[in-house]
């Protein structure tokens, strides 16, 4: 790993690498989101997708689907992993319970709004500035603290004040705030990631916790593609404070909920269908090792996705050459240079200066 002038951290070949050499198999994702639209068709654990067919195993309470009972069991083990005694009484079953309360809320609010699900519309919406981000989060912090105080009073068995009851009602009022199930899923996955990391007991020689691995990835201070998306993220703060089990509330903070998209945006990979040239965008996840690959419109590394990703060289690579993948999912061969650069800028926030773009 070297720092280069044009791309920051880069993977550089330290010796010649022949074509078709496997160079990396990643760990499972730090966090992942299956888009709600595809929740019945994509396995929540291994991300298997079978040409739009509904999967055989369904957890109605969590809204998750699985290709097998084995994957269902593995998913439940993962969401409960290391959520133990340090989180206090009631920590058992905390992960699954969290997904259940969020799914129940989304279903109820979707029905109340006269639709199956609560969705968002971003057409024509501009990317928010840093000032916009600060304003949106400032607007929900006071409500969030009122909700936190109300939850604390509930935990102690105290009667709620009128202000506290109003705060809980306002937090969950989907008519006055944006509810996006996919944003809630991302942020809940991040909260659970932090909770697991805080519950672990690392030694001096332990690797970084999963949450701190996420925080070590490249960051952007303006991760929200639209103002609608920004408000959906900010609205999720009081919603999650209202819904999640009490042991998780210390991890539901504005800083945590801001760090998650700030580190996810430029480091996530799409979960796509493999049977139709990847046309279906099914979700996304953060594979920390894979995020080290920079983009080129003339890549020399191919990738095979799944729960873990495999990377291999697609041609001979010389010593000292950078190892690059394509972020465009194969479309780098059909799009013009302006289209490529626009898509890369809109999605990942950089102007491509690879050899192919400079030539074109």
Automatic annotation (TrEMBL):
Gene3D superfamilies in UniProt: 6.10.140.2220, SET domain
Descriptive protein name: SET domain-containing protein
Stored InterPro entries: H3K4_H4K5_MeTrfase, SET_dom, SET_dom_sf
Start and end residues of each SET domain: 1-328
Alphabetical list of PROSITE patterns matching this protein: SET
CDD domains: SET_SMYD
GO cellular component, one term: nucleus
A Pfam family of this chain: SET
Superkingdom of source: Eukaryota
SUPFAM superfamilies: SET domain
